[in-house]
């Protein structure tokens, strides 16, 4: 069952893609969002950017297939988010969103150690418009085993639980 909080996070996601206010989102909007994100992290043209775009396009293709259209309006997007992802619990996340979040984790991992360190996390949060002290607190909260870094899995679980409204650590916002 979705709470108000989950719905508003998905709604915000939709509006960030539909920057021109067309009332629907299409493939090129989602691709442009991935490119903006990679650019903000200085990764334009990199293989990590391409992996992120590919992951987003895979997500988009399954969404638009489920919607039966390549122009997905807000109501349809919210309904599909509910039935195909949130309503399916962690299994829905794994099928639809996990590849995107794992590609994000790789994009954030600028020193290539396979983990999202605090500095890498705070940099991302800054891009998302979160203040340094807030993101440092969020990092501490998300680092479940307290070893000072987020493994790919810790990061993925953190994003999942954010989207599912299980915590309020700021993760997605500006892009
Ligand atoms: Ca790293
Ligand atoms: Ca950790």
UniProtKB/TrEMBL annotation:
SUPFAM superfamilies reported in the protein's UniProt record: EF-hand
Q: Which InterPro entries match?
A: EF-hand-dom_pair (IPR011992), EF_Hand_1_Ca_BS (IPR018247), EF_hand_dom (IPR002048)
EF-hand domain mapped to chain residues: 5-40, 130-165
Source taxon at top rank: Bacteria
Q: A Pfam family matched by this chain, by name?
A: EF-hand_5
Protein's UniProt name:
EF-hand domain-containing protein
User: What organism is this sequence from?
Assistant: Nocardiopsis changdeensis
């Amino acid at each position: 069952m979705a709470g108000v909080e989950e719905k508003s996070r998905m709604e915000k996601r939709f509006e960030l893609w539909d920057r021109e206010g067309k009332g629907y989102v299409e493939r090129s909007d989602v691709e442009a969002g991935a490119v903006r994100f990679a650019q903000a992290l200085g990764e334009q043209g990199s293989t990590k950017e391409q992996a992120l775009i590919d992951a987003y396009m895979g997500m988009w293709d399954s969404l638009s297939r489920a919607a039966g259209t390549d122009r997905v309006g807000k109501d349809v997007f919210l309904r599909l988010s509910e039935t195909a992802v949130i309503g399916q619990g962690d299994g829905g996340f794994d099928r639809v969103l996990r590849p995107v979040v794992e590609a994000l984790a790789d994009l954030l991992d600028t020193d290539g150690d396979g983990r999202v360190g605090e500095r890498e996390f705070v940099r991302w949060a800054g891009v998302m418009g979160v203040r340094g002290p807030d993101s440092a607190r969020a990092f501490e909260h998300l680092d479940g085993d307290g070893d000072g870094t987020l493994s790919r899995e810790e990061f993925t679980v953190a994003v999942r639980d954010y989207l599912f409204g299980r915590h309020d650590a700021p993760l997605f916002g500006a892009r």
